[in-house]
Amino acid sequence: MNLSQEDWVAQLAADENAVILDVRTGDEFNDGYIENAVNIDIHKGQGFIYEIEELDKNKNYYVYCRSGARSAKACQIMNELGIENAYNLLGGILDWEGDTVNP
């Protein structure tokens, strides 16, 4: 499900069962990420599938990438693997107006 930044942030803030998932590459992640995000690179192919299959299917996942395209695909894959609540951040981190962590 695609959410505007405003809706994504509001829903995330009210969700005690939330996990933030960054599906960009490790290099992109190291350039800055949304606080508390877990990084699983969608470009890992089957490795991405394996890591997603290990996730708790009862959690709600707030997914983002650089622009929103990879995270939309990630949400679709997550749904196919039995994770019902995956929310895509429209516009990705490019349009993100909140704080980021720079490692």
Automatic annotation (TrEMBL):
| Domain Rhodanese, first and last residues per copy | 14-103
Q: Which Pfam families does this UniProt record tie to the protein?
A: Rhodanese (PF00581)
Q: What is this protein called?
A: Rhodanese-like domain-containing protein
Q: Which InterPro entries match?
A: GlpE_sulfurtransferase, Rhodanese-like_dom, Rhodanese-like_dom_sf
The record lists the organism as Flavobacterium hydrocarbonoxydans
